[in-house]
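#struct-help
A.M.: can someone run this one for me? Single chain, 118 residues.
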Amino acid sequence: MNFIVDAHIPKAISRLLQEAGHNSIHTSSLELGNETPDKLINKISIEENRIVITKDSDFYNSFILSKVPYKIIFVKTGNISKANLINLFKNNLDTILFLIQENSIIELDSSEIKISYA
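D.P.: on it. Structure tokens below:
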């Protein structure tokens, strides 16, 4: 699977996905870095079938209205330490990957992973 990890998500999440054999980039590695506009992230997501991992509800709203970006893992943990967020992904990676294969949006918070849009 292909991923693009948004600015407010640690780069370590992108590395975790790479170590699991996936193609993942973090916005910090793009030409405009973490200042890359959502519109460009959406364009990359569609062109490269990249799943956006984000905390930004603008991506969620964009998908509901326009079916852009390609797919979303919407992180809704609120204030959480970087280490705890990384552990949340590590501990639930198989479930996250399984659910996002068949669904367009999944939501991840500290207590559950749910399908938000099939």
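A.M.: thanks! Residues 2-117 form a domain with the Rossmann fold fold (CATH 3.40.50).
D.P.: also worth noting: The chain has a mean pLDDT of 96.
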